[in-house]
Amino acid sequence: MKSFIICLVIIVVDANYFQNDFDLFPDLPLGVPNSENPVCREQSELFVDNLKNFTLWAHEIWDATAKASSGVLRGNIFQMGHFEQCLTAKAPFETQYCLATVTMYVGSLENPDRDPLAIDVDPNDSVLDKLYRYSDRTKQPRDTINIGWCVPASCTIKDLETSLTRHLQNDDTPLKRKNITFTASIKKEFCSRTSDKQFYTPADYSFGLLTLIMVVIVLASTIYDYKITNQTKSDEKVKKKTLTEKMILSFSARANFTEMAHKETTNSDLNILYGLRTISILVIIMDHRFGTFTSSALVNFNYVERQYRAPFACVVFHGDLLVDTFFLLSGLLVAYGLLSQFDKKMVNPAFIIFMRYIRLTPVYAFVIFYYATVFNYTGKGPLWKVIAGADSEDCRNNWWTNLLYVNNYVNPGHMCMTHAWYLPCDFHYFIIAVGICILIAKDKKLGICALLVTTMVSMIIPFILTVIYRRPAMLMFYPDFLTAPKTHPDFLLTYSKSHTRATPYFVGMFAGYIYYRLKGKNHHACKMKSFIIILLSVISIAASIFGGSVFYNPYHPYNPYESGAYAGFHRALWALGSVGLMYVASYGHGSLISNVLSWSPWVPLSKLQYGAYLIHMQFQLRSAASFMNPRYITYFDLISLSMSDMVLAFICALALYLTIEAPFRKIFKELLMPKRQPKSHKVEEVHTGNRVNHNNNNNVATGVQDSRL
Questions:
Q1: Do 183 and 278 reside in the same domain of the chain?
Q2: Which Pfam families does the UniProt entry name for this protein (predicted)?
């Protein structure tokens, strides 16, 4: 019996030794019993006493606290415990859940000869070489983890930091004998309480009321539309509608839904743009899903680290080129539409710019209103305040910079809707494009020279900035950017600024000028010319994409002039290659490309892409912010989630289109650009149930509306 007891003691001691002495990071303390805050100290002592007595509520609190770290060596830096159990524990006091940040300081490598850029570590080397913080940006730091801690809500951030720091200093582990030290910090944004339940503000109620009013108006307008359509079928004489009736019918869901299938241009050579815009937004949604997913808590971030060095990494991490496609198409449509209009009549440029503003802003303002109010109530989780809550807060504080289209210059570190940096760029380019189109209309040579100079300057600016500030050739989607995109130096310096992203837009204007000159002509490129253009275009696009792969190689030595050259010219290569393929699809032997891009279902989908662009990120941010535990990343999961994002985004975009985008576009167009009937003969206006037919075509509207994202 005595021997049995001795063996049992040895087993228990050995087990405790294994569990406590070989953890890479120390366990968190039981509450805050040494706090100088008397309430926090008393509640912590009550918690510990009940834990010893195996009281249920006390074990709910302890069970919700993360224990020994796991998966750190694979890049899992979040040990979350159980967020919801902590906040719903039936304790005699209020509880709070905090993510405590614990940092290990490893002074030097155990193996000084180890390659600091290598991903893999010799399995016989020290684990400390894996935990060492390297200067390699492609790696997730393993020396810092965030641990879920359930404690009394009476304990302040200072109480928690002080107690945890003291605990780390006094905790005796074998790692300390190797001169490894630990520090702790806790941010307010990483703490949540049951009492954090938000109460609706007047702004929240205002958004709900506005949404209800818009829905009621659309329903009433649609019912009225059905009524007068039935009357029109029974009456032989068609009555001309008053302005009030036109305003009411602008909100008809039936009419707006039917018109979605109508092409907005009579030039069949431009039909390929519907497919280009739709495919581009779908890929952008997928790219944003990859970014938001990897910015949150992952079990296997080491998988992402390997993707950075994969042969085709530039394809995965260079999706920003698809945004350049939108700049290209926008420039093309603006030049084509305005030059066609100026052939008929010059229009006040201030009026054109104002029309562009009111075309973009209503639905944009509505989405901003949503982000600033209701969005913050749509989820919860350990990272909610840091990801989704922070974005909602930025929209509450900086909404006005978005509506003035200066959000990429004014308070860009707290930009409302990170992806909205595109819109001020596009708006600024539009203003420049109007001036250049007026020059081309008055003096073709002078206007083309001005456009050429502007394009060259747009390429030189990123080159100069990259060289002067010694920045990378492009924005690298490494962990430091994924976790804090708005404040990243490259995002602020070159990625989101109008003066550094303009090249594709002005290349698009050249393309628009070409389409304008070929309009109505029987122009056709022969097979050989088409083949050469396709070959050169593919080479140009491939160079713009795969040329960036060298910069994802951590062994490649940095050269500011090489980086500057790529930063300045790779977007031009992408744009030129895209224009070449478009030219062949429109005028050459590119029937396959033309048939795919001109597919009729692209037409209605392309009209929803602006709303889809504005709204899709909220699904992805909500998903990333709601992670209750780290998730495993695979390409299959990313594609599946991306498809879900696409469906949800286009469903919401349809609702935005029918309630705001299409109605307000019609209202402003009717008020500011009313159709004028020819004086020589009377033109009868016929209501067909889904549209109003007129004989004249307004190219100002074409230039302003079709160039939207």
A1: no
A2: Acyl_transf_3, NRF
> Does some domain include residue 16?
no
| 507 lies in the same domain as 617 | yes
pLDDT profile of the chain (709 residues), mean per 10: 51 49 83 88 92 93 90 91 93 94 87 83 85 87 93 93 89 78 91 82 93 95 87 62 84 91 80 93 94 91 90 83 94 95 89 94 97 93 92 95 96 94 97 96 94 96 96 92 92 95 96 91 85 94 91 91 95 96 89 88 93 95 92 92 96 96 92 65 39 44 50
Q: Residue 194 is encoded by which pair of tokens?
A: 């049951």
Residue type, 487: T
Task: Tell whether 180 and 317 lie within a shared domain.
Answer: no
Q: What angle do CA 594, 599, 600 make, to 5 degrees?
A: 140
Strands 144-152 and 78-79: parallel
Report which DSSP code applies to 550: G
**Domain that includes residue 122, residue range:** 24-196
Tell me if residue 237 falls in helix, strand or coil.
coil
pLDDT in tens, 506-538: 999 999 999 999 987 887 888 899 999 999 999
Q: Within a domain: residue 238?
A: no
Q: What is the pTM of this model?
A: 0.89
SS3 category, 158: helix
DSSP 150: E
Q: What span, in angstroms and rounded, lies between the C-alpha atoms of 611 and 601?
A: 17
Written as six digits, the tokens of 698 are 């307004």
Closest CA to 265 of 588, 603, 524: 603
What is the Cα–Cα distance from 583 to 208, expressed in whole angstroms? 47
Distance CA 336, CA 116 (A): 53
Domain stops at, among 141, 173, 196 = 196
Residue 467 lies in a domain: yes
Q: Residue 298 forms beta bridges with which residues?
A: 631
Q: Tell me the C-alpha distance between 466 and 558, whole Å.
A: 12
Joined tokens for residue 406: 């200066």
86, 194 Cβ separation under 8 angstroms: no
User: Both 437 and 522 in a single domain?
Assistant: yes
Verify that 272 and 189 share a domain, yes or no.
Answer: no
What is the Cα–Cα distance from 571 to 474, expressed in whole angstroms? 10
Do 490 and 562 have their domain in common?
Answer: yes
Sign of CA dihedral 659, 626, 51, 168: negative
Residue 490 belongs to some domain of the structure: yes
CA-based radius of gyration for the chain: 30
Q: How many domains does the chain have?
A: 2
pLDDT, tens only, 103-119: 999 888 777 888 888 88
Q: Which two tokens stand for residue 333?
A: 């449509």
134, 142, 594 from 538: Cα distances, Å: 38, 41, 16
Give the residues across from 78 on adjacent strands. Answer: 146
Chosen domain end from 196, 214, 241: 196
**Residue 515 shares a structural domain with residue 414:** yes
Both 187 and 277 in a single domain?
A: no
